[in-house]
Amino acid sequence: MIRINRETDYATAILGIMAEEPEACFSATGLAERRGLPGPVVSKILKQLARGGLLHSQRGAKGGYSLARDADAISIAEVIMAMEGPIALTDCIEGGGDACQFHAHCALSSNWSRINDAIYRALQDVSIKEMSAPLADDHQGLRDMGRHVRESLDVAGGRVMAFRSDHG
Known about the structure:
Elements lengths: L5 H15 L7 H8 L3 H13 L3 E4 L5 E4 L8 H9 L6 H5 L12 H17 L3 H4 L8 H13 E2 L4 E2 L8
Antiparallel strand pairs: 1-2, 3-4
Helix pairs in contact: 1-3, 1-4, 2-3
């Protein structure tokens, strides 16, 4: 299964709050209370986002965190990269040919690269500002999401099938 980690999900939610008040300066404690998350987790996330260039941090009594750019200029791809590192579906994407002993004889790696690029572009096309606003009930993305989820279920066995990237 392709999945972002919990802290990346929290980071997106925190940035969504910040996108609603783009000029404000937020404390880790205030964001933790608003989002219902533990303070230390929020502090850690804010530091990672600041290191990734998505937030400015300011020390002092009037300090806190603010968006480094407009919310519509910060993409979900950037959030994932700040929190988790490069977006790479398989080892051969992240590590290149050296990551796999079968690389010299593998036709799949270039296609995994193509798929990885498509996913990256899709994530790059969605901003934090867009993520902070709910989709309309009739939005195409919501209709397609249900179909894709149903198609990925093993209905006969009643379990979710995980996507695997093992190849060679």
